[in-house]
Amino acid sequence: MTWRASVLTLFPAMFPGSLGQSLAGRALETGVWSLDVTNIRDFANDRHKTVDDTPFGGGAGMVLRPDIVDAAVASVADDRPVVCLTPRGRRFTQADAQRFAAGPGAILLCGRYEGIDQRVIEARAMDEVSIGDYVLSGGELAALVLLDSIVRLLPGVMGAAESAEDESFSAGLLEYPHYTRPAEWQGHRVPDVLLSGHHGAVAAWRQAESKRITRERRPDLLAAAP
Ligand code: SAH
């Protein structure tokens, strides 16, 4: 079954963007997933195609109107979750990517300017998601990030099935380091164990490296592990 993505944006030309390339692009062509992009401006109802207005209570910037956004969401709404990209949302993780990949698809709402009127976010019970603690100028790059991380998990998208199992975050740890030929480069040798041909020893070394690197770089991940 095709995993279905619908994106609502004021800048439809930003899609499929990077998702038209490489693994995601191939999977889009072969129908593993589908992407439709809706221009929120198409739901404006005045001559000037206005989608935003000034914030109640004053302050800088413009806010996307709830009636216009609601009409845009209604045009694609079905059984899929509606995700609102916002720096005020819960931080997106690999576990979220796995959960979305297991579902039928997602509707992704990209904000611009100061953001979106909170009433439509609540009325549509949107899942408010952030990709990190920084502010982008629009939700489009965030939507591309979510979709990239989800699509690569869909069955048949990645080459070897196990490449998704080992990687960073899937076991609550960062991944071990990788090495390839030449075995010696600028005087630096690859760790001997990797050349030993001893699968058990390699697995043990990788597990230990995973833990060491996670402890050094992301102790928060270890603290959160079950
Ligand atoms: N005034 C808002 C920021 C608006 S940025 C605030 O201070 O919270 C404009 C749009 O970019 C947002 O509506 C959102 O859709 C998107 N955006 C910005 N940063 C983001 C992030 N870290 N994660 C997801 N979306 C983000």
Topology:
Layout: E1 3-9, H1 22-29, E2 33-39, E3 52-53, E4 63-64, H2 66-74, E5 82-91, H3 94-101, E6 105-110, E7 115-116, H4 118-123, E8 127-130, H5 140-151, H6 163-166, E9 184-185, E10 188-189, H7 199-217, H8 219-224
Parallel strand pairs: 1-2, 1-6, 4-7, 5-6, 5-8
Antiparallel strand pairs: 3-4, 9-10
The structure holds S-adenosyl-L-homocysteine.
Q: Helix fraction?
A: 25-40%
**Form type:** elongated
Query: Cofactors and ligands present?
Result: S-adenosyl-L-homocysteine
Q: Number of helix segments? A: 8
Strand content: 15-25%
By CATH, the topology of the largest domain is: Alpha/beta knot
**Coarse structural class:** alpha/beta
- Just give the CATH class of the largest domain: Alpha Beta
User: How many domains, in number, for the residues?
Assistant: 2
Low-confidence stretches: none
CATH-derived architecture of the largest domain: 3-Layer(aba) Sandwich
Sheet with the most strands?
A: 5 strands, parallel
Count of strand segments:
10
**What's the alpha carbon Rg, rounded to whole Å?**
22 Å
Calculate the mean pLDDT score and round it. Answer: 96
* Helix-strand pattern: EHEEEHEHEEHEHHEEHH
Straight-line distance between termini: 33 Å
Question: Any idea what the CATH superfamily of the largest domain is called?
Answer: SPOUT methyltransferase, trefoil knot domain
Sequence of strands across the biggest β-sheet:
2-1-6-5-8
